[in-house]
Design goal:
It contains 17 helices and eight strands. By secondary structure, it is α/β, with parallel strands linked by helices. An eight-stranded parallel barrel has the order 1-2-3-4-5-6-7-8, surrounded by seven helices. The protein has helices at 8-13, 30-39, 46-56, 74-83, 85-98, 104-129, 149-160, 174-185, 198-217, 233-237, 240-248, 255-273, 299-302, 315-324, 340-346, 350-356, 370-398; strands at 20-24, 69-71, 136-140, 166-171, 190-195, 227-232, 283-287, 309-313. α13 (299-302) links the parallel β7 (283-287) and β8 (309-313).
Length: 399
C-alpha cells in the first residue's frame, strides 16, 4: 500500500499546471475547521494531518498555501455567523449602530459585505504576488433578485468596491448572464453561479466573449480580471426529476450513473471552454462534489482531475477526499472519456440529454430547471437567516 508524503489535496493540485483548488467557504472559518479536523483525528496521524492542513491554508502566510482562491455565498456566510457567532456578533453590532436608518434586509447585505471584505484581506497578498491571477474572493449578488438586472448590477458594483480581489458571483439566469456581459465590459471579474448544464455554460461563455470585445474596444483595463463558470456538479444529478425521467425510459438511476452524469457534463464543458476555435476566455470551475459511488471513491473529484480548471471544495468534501484518497493514486483524468456503456444509458434519459446538449434548454428557461429552483430557494433562505441574525442582535441591543 503506497504511503504518500503529500496529501490527496496536494496531489490533486499537481495533476495539471493549470489546475487550481479554491476554498468553498468563508476564509474566516478555516481555523475553526482546522481545529475540528485535528480534534477528531487519530492521535498517531495528528502531526501528519496538521502539516497537511497548514499546506492548504496558513493564516500567517497565505501567499504560499495551496488554496488559490475562495468562493462564498449567502449559505456559507450564514454558516460562518453560526460557527463564529461570538467573534462576529460585535461586528454586526457595529454595522447596526452605524446604519440606523437601514432595515434588516439592507443590514443583512452590509453584514454579508463586511464578512466578505475581511476574507479578501487574507487573500490580498496572494492576489498581488500572483500578478492578479489568483487570490480572488467570490461574493454573490442576492439570490432573491436573479431576474432583476438593475438591482443585481447595483449590488455587483457595491461588492466590487469592497476590494480589488473581489470576483462578483452572478446567477445563471437569463438576466444573470446579461449582468455578466455588462460587468465583463467594465473589466469586473465574474463567477457565474447556479449553473448546472451545458446550455448555461455556452450562454455565459458567449456573454463573456461579447462583453470582453466591447470592453477592449473601449480601452478597459483587464489586468485584474478573470472569468470562471461554476458548474454545481452534484446538484444537477441530485434532483428527483432525474430519477423520474430515468424511470420513464426503463433505466435504473444508480449512484454510479448519477455521478457519471455530472462528470460527463463537466468534461464536455471543459472541452468547450478550452477549444481555441471557440475563442472563450472563461475557465471551468466545479463545486458541490459528492463522495461515491461506494465507500472508496470520490468520482466527482477523481474523474475530472487535471486540465485547465478550478475546483472549489467545501470543508466536508475536503474531509471526505483526503480520507478516501489518502493512500489512493490521484492523477489527471479530465481528458479520459466517459465509458461508452454509461453514456449509452445517459443519452436515453431526457433529463440528462437536455442538460448535455448545447441547445437542450432555452435561455429563458434556465430559471425553471429543478436544480436552479431548489438552489435559489436554499440560497435565498440563507439570506433570510442572515437577516434573522441581524434582527436578533438588534433585539438584544434594545433590551
Amino acid at each position: 500500500m503506497p504511503n504518500y508524503e503529500k496529501s490527496a489535496m496536494q496531489r490533486l493540485s499537481e495533476t495539471s499546471e493549470d489546475m487550481e483548488i479554491w476554498w468553498d467557504s468563508s476564509p474566516l472559518v478555516y481555523e475553526a475547521w482546522e481545529n475540528e479536523m485535528l480534534e477528531k483525528a487519530d492521535p498517531l496521524k495528528k502531526d501528519k494531518l496538521k502539516g497537511y492542513l497548514k499546506t492548504l491554508f496558513d493564516m500567517g502566510n497565505p501567499v504560499d498555501t495551496l488554496f488559490d482562491g475562495v468562493t462564498t455565498n449567502p449559505k456559507l456566510t450564514s454558516t460562518a455567523l453560526k460557527i463564529l457567532s461570538e467573534e462576529l456578533a460585535p461586528i454586526v453590532d457595529e454595522i447596526i449602530e452605524g446604519n440606523k436608518a437601514k432595515n434588516d434586509y439592507l443590514l443583512a447585505l452590509e453584514t454579508y459585505k463586511e464578512i466578505t471584505k475581511r476574507g479578501t484581506t487574507l487573500y490580498m497578498p496572494l492576489f498581488e504576488k500572483s500578478g492578479y491571477k489568483k487570490g480572488y474572493v467570490s461574493a454573490q449578488v442576492d439570490p432573491r433578485e436573479v431576474t432583476d438586472v438593475k438591482k443585481m448590477l447595483h449590488q455587483a458594483l457595491e461588492l466590487k468596491q469592497l476590494s480589488e480581489n473581489v470576483m462578483v458571483k452572478c446567477p445563471g439566469s437569463h438576466e444573470g448572464v446579461y449582468l455578466t456581459e455588462i460587468l465583463t465590459s467594465l473589466g469586473i471579474p465574474t463567477n457565474q453561479t447556479l449553473v448546472f448544464h451545458i446550455p448555461q455554460v455556452v450562454a455565459v461563455a458567449e456573454a463573456v466573449k461579447t462583453g470582453l470585445e466591447m470592453g477592449k474596444r473601449n480601452g478597459v483595463d483587464y489586468t485584474k480580471w478573470r472569468s470562471v463558470i461554476t458548474i454545481m456538479i452534484g446538484r444537477f444529478e441530485g434532483m428527483p426529476e432525474f430519477e423520474e425521467s430515468a424511470k420513464e425510459v426503463g433505466i435504473e438511476l444508480t449512484e454510479e450513473l448519477k455521478r457519471w452524469s455530472g462528470i460527463a457534463i463537466a468534461k464536455k464543458a471543459h472541452k468547450i471552454l478550452n477549444d481555441p476555435s471557440n475563442g472563450y476566455s472563461s475557465k471551468l470551475l466545479l463545486c458541490s462534489a459528492r463522495p461515491g459511488p461506494g465507500e472508496g471513491n470520490v468520482y466527482h473529484v477523481e474523474k475530472v482531475a487535471g486540465g485547465n480548471m478550478v475546483y472549489t471544495m467545501n470543508p466536508e468534501i475536503i474531509d471526505d477526499f483526503m480520507r478516501i484518497c489518502d493512500e489512493k493514486e490521484v492523477y489527471s483524468q479530465m481528458d479520459d472519456p466517459v465509458p461508452e456503456e454509461i453514456m449509452s444509458k445517459l443519452m436515453k434519459i431526457p433529463y440528462f440529454v437536455e442538460g448535455y446538449e448545447v441547445d437542450g434548454i432555452k435561455r429563458d428557461n434556465f430559471i425553471n430547471h429543478p436544480s436552479f429552483i431548489l438552489t435559489r430557494e436554499q440560497f435565498s433562505g440563507s439570506m433570510k437567516e442572515i437577516e434573522a441574525f441581524v434582527a436578533e442582535r438588534k433585539s438584544k441591543k434594545d433590551q
